[in-house]
Amino acid sequence: MSGLIRRDRTYTEAREAEELSPLATRSVTTRGRDVPEELDTWRTPFERDRDRITHSKAFRRLKHKTQVFMNPDGDHFVTRLTHTLQVTQIGRSLARYLGLNEPLTEAICLGHDVGHSPFGHTGEDALSSYVDGEWHHAAQSVRIYEVLEPANLTWEVRDGIRAHSWKVDPPPASPEGYCCRLADRIAYLTHDVDDAVRAGIITLDDLPGAAISCFGPAGPHWIQSMIEAVVDESAQRGEVVMDPEALEAMNELRDFMFERVYLRPEAEGQRTRAIEIIRDLVEYYIADPEKVPPTYQQDEADGVTRAIDYVSGMTDRFAIREWEQLN
């Protein structure tokens, strides 16, 4: 005996059957892929999806995309990639503590933001003028893995990515998708507070009293407090939800962050410049569609869609560099 254990896919499936919550999504019950594939010897379908996402070009580009601060110079400001990794850690913690499918949660969390445009949500605002309704990064994330960088992901992973945002309806079909929803909000509120304090925009004394009363003094333990508020309430109610008092405090903190950080008047010039950059680039590629790289020239897409696909996939610094060359 070597002392090592051979843990292949069938071993993992057996553990899922025995150990996961009755509400968990099991690998053997997946609704599958659009194009059927042979099962992997070692990995479950959700584990394969996780690996496909982390090896994608769209995932790698997240390291140079804005979270809050546009193209930040400081080494310690959160980027879209570090945000994604924090969401994944929180999402896996929620799934583990609730007996849900960790690899499925991990795959959803890793892929949830790959469709984000340059300059964060300001970029979404700029692109929305070119589509009916609202251009949203969640739908673009799904489009990336279905069309632009086809990965043939399982239905459950695509559904969780589609519905990770609280504004998207219908909501996630799986409890693992709800883990990503809550993990996303927990992550961005806690690390954005840290970044805003580091940037001198707010002080810890400015934070809403309800957040301090509910989660304690601001610090790393806020994440654990919020996780516990989800786990305890979910275990009681049989669905992935947050304790109402904690949710109210978190929503008050979110409102505070929008007023004092995300939409602060001092950042209006930066937002205006970001919108100008994105719209100028989209207009340029609409007018000269041959400049769009072949990988973004999908046969079924019109010129506007191709331009948006290309520009929305740019990193902050690449978009700035391209725009400067045009001007």
Describe the protein.
By secondary structure, the chain is an all-alpha fold. It has a domain at 43-267: Hypothetical protein af1432, CATH 1.10.3210. Helices cover 58% and strands 0% of the residues. The protein is built from 15 helices and no strands. The longest helix is centred in the middle third of the chain and has 24 residues, at 175-198.
What is the strand and helix layout of this fold?
Layout (H helix, E strand, L loop, with lengths): L8 H11 L25 H10 L2 H5 L18 H18 L4 H10 L8 H9 L8 H12 L6 H8 L12 H24 L10 H7 L5 H17 L6 H19 L5 H20 L15 H10 L3 H11 L1
Helix pairs in contact: 2-5, 4-5, 4-9, 4-11, 5-8, 5-9, 6-13, 7-8, 8-9, 9-11, 9-12, 10-12, 13-14, 13-15
Secondary-structure-derived class: mainly alpha
CA gyration radius, whole angstroms: 21 Å
Low-confidence stretches: none
Percent helix among the residues?
55-70%
If you average the pLDDT, what whole number results?
94
Q: What is the CATH T-level topology of the domain at 43-267?
A: Hypothetical protein af1432
Assembly category: single chain
In the CATH scheme, the class of the domain at 43-267 would be Mainly Alpha
CATH superfamily of the domain at 43-267: Hypothetical protein af1432
Distance between the termini: 68 Å
Order of helices and strands: HHHHHHHHHHHHHHH
